[in-house]
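Q: Sequence in, structure out?
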Amino acid sequence: MHMNAGVRQGIVPDPSLTLEHEGSRAGALLALGVIVAILAAYHETTWSMISTWARSDTFAHGFLIFPFSGYLIWGQRRHLATLSARPNPKVLFVLAILGFSWLLGTLASVQVFAQFMVIAMISAAVWAILGNRMAWALAFPLAYLLLAVPFGDAFIPPLINFTADFTVTALQLTGIPVYREGSFFTIPSGNWSVVEACSGLRYLIASFTLGTLYAYLTYRSLTRRLIFIALSLIVPILANGIRAYLIVMTGHLSDMQLAVGIDHLIYGWIFFGFVMLVLFWIGSFWREDENRFDGARFTAPVSTGNNRGPESDSMQGDSASIRTIFTAVAVLAIAIIWPIYAELLERKSSYGTEEVEIHIFDTSGKWQESPEFLSDWKPIYMGSTAQFLRNYRSNGQSVDLYISYYRDQKQGAELINSENLLVPGKESKWHEAGEDMRSIFLGSQEEVVKQNRLRSSSAALLVWRWYWIGGEETANPYWAKLMLARNKLLGRGDDAAELIVATRYEDSVDEAASVLQDFITDKMPAITGALRNAADR
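A: Exactly. Output:
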């Protein structure tokens, strides 16, 4: 009786909903398969992320990002079940742009950029296959995947500078005299330096990763989420400055017996953990515990059953499935073409095992080669194809010239790499006293180069350095990477070099700068000619 009455009143679930839900489930499985295929097609980029997670404590959290994102998606499964998959082929254009961007990043050996593009392609693939409504519902879990990219090394220098500034200022306010030179400073009880491990990058990344997740799970208001995420960035930077100050004070007050070894890192993590607990505790006072989705949104709509029949629903379901499959195939085709093209370009630009030799011939005779260098300092460049190291003297002036030449560049053997260093580290007796940019004349053109001041206990060096990329000069590493990608894309190869000139200075760098400018004015034509000859071989 009740069943028949219900049928007459039209209060039965719409058969099309079952088809839509089944289509959504099939679309989700198809999207998952496409994601796996993309990660496999870009296996070198994928593996570069995994290997970084495995070897670096700073980025070990990357192993957790995909599981966290999957958990967030699983938590929305009831809401997602009410949505239908409606493919959006227009997103294929976005996918193509991301693929081309990955190609540029790969050709330029900008690993982190290529990694970002692969992760972004995953989001674009889901968007294209499942459609706008599904993509919007999954926006945060998909965006959270970007945190899997081991990114942040570029922030180390400014973080080191901020920590040094904060620590020195705090010490001076405490009444302790400080002599500072770059990231090194001296107080009456001993010498200190802010190195990479003290930059606070680990704290910053850990705080941002946890803080973003906490904000999403705890708040519903976008304003509150953004405020807490901003705090998760600001608080660890300030906390790291306080941590560094407390460590120096501990060492100072203990006569350099405490907080001068591995124990200061342990103290740092304990302090950071306490700070984050306080941050989350304060944030909990403004939490919003209501359900993310209204109960009505979990309730499947009902149909009067008067507009469509089962056959029409079935036809529409079949049509949607065909569109989903077609879109998924198009996504795979567009995604896979770029690594294939990159491989073809790499083979085309490869020079094999041909050796590179640099010979500088100068007929002017003003600067004469000398067997003795200015000092025992030498830059460290990994995997260079050829190196040229000479000292030149003229009228009592002395200049060291260093050229690191690269061809067939790849990860670990590339011109612009964080492993290429002016000063090897805290074990070296040399340290960097400062870095800025300086305008000089390279031949007839004015260019901006990097200027570094290096010091040891017995000498001070003024260093200028810039890049030579297939006949063009720049000191900007990002522009240099783009030039490398362009040259390889156009089949011009990837020959490039970094040029470094150095001379001694005393109190002022102006006189030393004049010496370097005279050397470059006299020798640049011969140096440029030697590099072009090496590139043509």
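Confidence is low (pLDDT under 50) at residues 1-19, 291-315.
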